[in-house]
Amino acid sequence: MHKSLLCLLIVTVYAASAVPVNSDYSEDRAYPRFIEFPDGEGVMHTVDLEAEPDMELLDEIARNPANNQYFLFTRRNPSNSQTLVINNANSVTNSNFNANNPTVVIAHGWLSNQNTDINPTIRDAYLAKSDTNVIVLDWRRLALADYATAVRGVPDVGRGLGQFLAFINRVTGQAFNRMHLVGFSLGAHLVGNAGRELGGRAARVTALDPAGPLWNYNSNRVNPNDGIYVEAIHTDGGYTVGGLGIGSNVANADFYPNGGISQPGCLTNICNHNRAWELFAATVTYNHLVGRLCTSSTQITLNTCRGAELRMGNDILTKTGSGMYRLDTARRYPF
């Protein structure tokens, strides 16, 4: 079901009472043991943040971090993918991959796969805009595990993605500064780790509402050194346990649309959370959402940011910027 419908149809009641944090966008948010977290179709699942992780699966992923699937889409095959296989040069040279065109990698979140809405939405925006190698990463082998296990395995899966992109570089000669890594929720931390594996040489890393539970003090979370330019879009940070996103600065430039907590037209945290990738896809097409630099989280909350302007999202590989930004959007696409 389309996410815009979910925003109207799903009303989520969180299992635990909210615990206020010490300050806006604080890392001190306290989560209860049991929370509700959505899958890629917007269905809520009860998550035990203290669950024992599946060590057998984690050991397998650590031994073979490249155990992912990579699906290539280009203007020559906009809807039927070609499978790229790490260390199989023929899978790349016989595909429509064009090293002269920029590459964007899309990484889904928890309990999701290549068919989850984020992938075709961002893919179609890119291919309508320009000739691009769009690679959809399917990491369902780990993403379908329980949340605590998935969190533990994200760094290794990210490492595998980084190794895959190094392989693409060797086979095609495409420079890392022609690559843009985009990830949502858990996938945001995944692409951060992929960028780290590449020594921060990827042109851009875009973190779409990076997941919050078990990441506040996690050294493996996305950070400003993961790419030449790292950007985060926070749409469901929240002051309390209800927010699914991390809600704190993690990038060179951190954007807080509508304050970063509640989005226009949304009634649930699922809708707020998904709005990050919806906004990003719209900016690839229109490059129309402009943030204003803020000096404090209080300015973000009160909507009193008056600093320099920076456009949120878009597909520009040479984009630069730093600081935290507030902007307001409309309720419906293109926002």
TrEMBL record:
Predominant cellular place of this UniProt entry's protein: secreted
Keywords attached to this entry: Secreted, Signal
Any one GO biological process: lipid catabolic process
Secreted is among the record's keywords: yes
GO MF term set: lipase activity; serine hydrolase activity
GO cellular component assignments: extracellular space
Span of the signal peptide: 1-18
Family: Belongs to the AB hydrolase superfamily. Lipase family.
The name this protein goes by in its record: Lipase domain-containing protein
Organism: Spodoptera littoralis
